[in-house]
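Subject: Predicted fold for Antitoxin Xre/MbcA/ParS-like toxin-binding domain-containing protein, 229 residues

User T.R. writes:
Posting the sequence so we have a shared reference for the thread.
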Amino acid sequence: MAKAQSAGPKSAAAAHVALASPLVSTPSAVASDIGRYVMALDATRAAATMLIDKIQTADFTPAAKVEMTRQVRLSVSEQEGLVLQGLVDASPVSLLTDSRAELEAKAVKAVLNGTTWLTAQRVGERQNPDATNQHAVTSRWKREGKIFSIERAGQTLYPKYVFDELGNPIPEVAEILKIFAGYRPFRIASWFESTNSMLRGKRPREVLATNPQAVIEAAKDHVVGAVHG
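User M.O. replies:
I've generated the structure tokens; pasting them so everyone works from the same file.
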């Protein structure tokens, strides 16, 4: 077992290098040939699933399996981020012919339109209208892992559903973000916007304020399913 454990990080690193080659270079490249990039992203996800399956059945220690799986998932997350960020910056996209690309574009549109998005200035004003630096509070909360944001066309935006009625972060959001450690922000936002069977078909963002513990359990289930699926 000692030999398998020492091979673990090396194998994981190799997997990371294999998956880490950029799919895109700029958002404009995504907009010009989005179908090709989405197909490449699908191939990356499929390769990652195969790698994770092999890791789970290989003769590695449990700790090595966890670390190798984590590195593979981070690599896939990086590739998803490149494509999805390009889609966000270019949204709305109307000249798509590839059906898979159309689905990705619709997912982006659903995330952007599913909730109200707040700038750092607006978040600061809601929390403390008299504060001198309205951006300071969002910077601190984000640094502490209490909230997350997405980037759209160079602007940082925060989803309204992570805040309570007084403009403070909902406490359970921090735990949810820990569960999704390594996920790209837009992927987290997409999960919050997707219907969830554990929440009786509701979206996590719809349940967060009234039953945050249920949302935490749904997040755990999603991550476990993604690792073994």
